[in-house]
Amino acid sequence: MQRRISIKFRAVHTRVHISLFSLVVAPPPTRTHAPSSPSQRLPSSPTESQSQQLPQFPRPRRSSTFHPAIMAVVMEGEEFQHILRVLNTNIEGRQKVMYALTSIKGVGRRFSNLVLKKADVDLAKRAGSLSNEEIDRIVTIIQNPRQFKIPDYFLNRQRDFKDGKTSQLIANQLDFKMREDLDRLRKIRSHRGMRHYFGLRVRGQHTKTTGRRGRTVGVSKKKA
């Protein structure tokens, strides 16, 4: 038996009657014939239905925090060091050597990459798995880069003011030289030195809105 449904909408503000077409809803078909083959026959018991089902394995779920660096396999043996002390700096042992050396002040990624190639150390190696001989070679090359034919444009101290030499400064040496340069600029009362002395921007930046410090003057309204 079929049922006939009619739907009507009324718009109040326009006073217009809208009638939609009639919908014919048919009842779902009922199955009266018997299965034609034994394969279409319904299972007679729950055990039979379970035996016919295929085994379902759990689908692996990928975590939202997946990252190759997190999933990296680190071989931690008895000789693995989690923290190394190199040139008065603590180095993370679980990082790769090239990136771990950048925690030393004055050593960048390009310079550390070249140092490791000169020292014949694998770039994919973890810092904690370095041997004492490899660490000694790395330290020697960092302290004396020109002896190992590293170009001068890789070094961070170009043509020193006093002796005119090009060298690589690291850790405390770099801090001492920077402090010495600023003191020299203040003594000769150069523009850069005086800007450093007063704590202002040195490289030509605008200072109207940025770099402001000190107490602000409040604005008061006039009484009517």
TrEMBL record:
Compartments, record wording: Cytoplasm
Q: Where is this region: Disordered?
A: 29-63
Q: Name one GO cellular component term.
A: small ribosomal subunit
A GO molecular function assigned to this protein is: RNA binding
Keywords in UniProt for this one?
Cytoplasm, Ribonucleoprotein, Ribosomal protein
A biological-process GO annotation? translation
Entry-linked Pfam families:
Ribosomal_S13
InterPro entries reported for this sequence = Rbsml_uS13_C, Ribosomal_uS13, Ribosomal_uS13-like_H2TH, Ribosomal_uS13_CS
Give the superkingdom in one word: Eukaryota
Listed Low complexity bias regions: 35-46
Query: Is Ribosomal protein tagged as a keyword?
Result: yes
Q: Which family does it belong to?
A: Belongs to the universal ribosomal protein uS13 family.
The name of this protein is: 40S ribosomal protein S18
